[in-house]
UniProtKB/TrEMBL annotation:
Record gene name: panC
Enzyme Commission number, as recorded: 6.3.2.1
PANTHER family: CYTIDYLATE KINASE/PANTOATE-BETA-ALANINE LIGASE, PANTOATE--BETA-ALANINE LIGASE
InterPro entries with a match to the protein in the record: Cyt_trans-like, Pantoate_ligase, Pantoate_ligase_C, Rossmann-like_a/b/a_fold
Record protein name field: Pantothenate synthetase
Length: 285
């Protein structure tokens, strides 16, 4: 595996891969890798001759009171995991390499941000599309791979690709979970022992809501209330939101129909966890 820290080195790898006629798969990450990230690499490995992973904790997508400085980092471990998973090129730039000077262009997401995580994180997805745009230009991928745990992010990047005609195919990979159902996340390390025991109720609450829809419940608020009731009783966390929306449009629903997402976020003492189930009316997610 080739580890590169500069844009010039990355471009040299891309040019060589293109010259060899190789398809390029891109896996953008913020590092502190877990099985969820490695599942993205596995999918990329199956579909491409060259796999590029980026590790970059992007300051533009963190608010002033968020955890940019304490976001977990372990680059040496990440390099070992990436190599073992089959990454061909690991791009690990620092902030100065990605943003050497203030940009005179600002990217603003104008839709799909007024729901879910976007409400409490103003500017977050502007930072996401900015760094993803830069990575798409630098890595020139044929296909890019994102985890569906961050389903709102995937929906917004889908809009980015379509709005700006990026020649990139997006692949959403299902959430990888612990044995008890908790979604793999770099932030799970923030949970106390007691919180870790209660956190799987986030996924269980979502399953109850989806099961109700599968059994014919069409009332959106009834499905949301059922989910909230379970979280309140068992999760031991403050509820940030529970929403049932169309997907990927993230629009309010008059009734539970079509392709939807039931999503929730909860706050523990030092960790905010998100999870979701994407499903179609009449089918269990």
């Amino acid at each position: 595996m080739k580890v590169v820290k500069t844009i010039q080195e990355l471009k040299e790898f891309v040019q060589a891969a293109k010259k060899a006629g190789h398809r390029i798969g891109l896996v953008p990450t913020m590092g502190f890798l877990h099985e969820g990230h490695l599942a993205l690499v596995q999918k990329a490995r199956e579909e491409n001759e060259a796999v590029i992973m980026s590790i970059f904790v992007n300051p533009l997508q963190f608010g002033p009171d968020e955890d940019f400085e304490r976001y977990p980092r372990n680059l040496e471990r990440d390099e070992q995991l990436a190599a073992g998973a089959g990454v061909d090129c690991l791009f690990t730039p620092d902030v100065e390499e990605m943003y050497p000077e203030p940009s005179i262009i600002a990217m603003t997401v104008t839709s799909r941000t007024d729901k879910l995580c976007g409400v409490k994180r103003p500017g977050h997805f502007d930072g996401v599309v900015t760094v993803v745009t830069k990575l798409f230009h630098l890595a020139e991928p044929d296909t890019a791979y994102f985890g569906l745990k961050d389903a709102q992010q995937f929906a917004i990047i889908d809009g980015l690709v379509k709005s700006l005609n990026f020649p990139v195919k997006l692949v959403g990979v299902d959430t990888v979970r612990e044995e008890d159902g908790l979604a793999k996340s770099s932030r799970n390390v923030y949970l106390t022992e007691e919180e870790r025991m209660k956190a799987p109720h986030l996924q269980q609450a979502l399953k109850l809501g989806v099961q109700a829809a599968a059994q014919g419940e069409e009332n959106v608020q009834a499905i949301v209330d059922l989910t909230i009731s379970h979280l309140t009783a068992y999760a031991g966390a403050a509820i940030d939101y529970v929403e049932l929306l169309s997907y990927p449009g993230l629009m309010p629903l008059k009734k539970a129909e079509g392709k939807m997402i039931l999503a929730a976020a909860v706050k523990y003492s030092k960790a905010r966890l998100i999870d979701n189930i994407i499903f179609t009316a009449g089918e269990e997610g």
